[in-house]
Design goal:
Layout (H helix, E strand, L loop, with lengths): L1 H5 L5 H9 L6 E4 L13 E4 L2 H13 L3
Antiparallel strand pairs: 1-2
């Protein structure tokens, strides 16, 4: 209902997809806490179907703030 209110003309199929989405086929790799990290080396890698990792991207990028 929230998404229907903020996204005008959203397709019902997309909302159904979001309602039923699972992340079982998504893998997240991250550096262990306390490890030394060098510049230009990724701290996190997310693998899986493109639409699922794109939906996760904003959340993962803003968790540390």
């Amino acid at each position: 209902e929230y998404l229907r209110g903020i996204i005008p003309n959203v397709e019902e199929e997309f909302l159904t997809y979001l309602k039923n989405i699972t992340l079982e086929d998504v893998k997240i790799y991250a550096a262990d806490e306390g490890n030394v990290i060098f510049p230009r080396i990724p701290l996190m890698r997310v693998e899986g179907p493109l639409i699922k990792v794109q939906l996760l991207e904003t959340t993962l990028l803003t968790l540390g703030e």
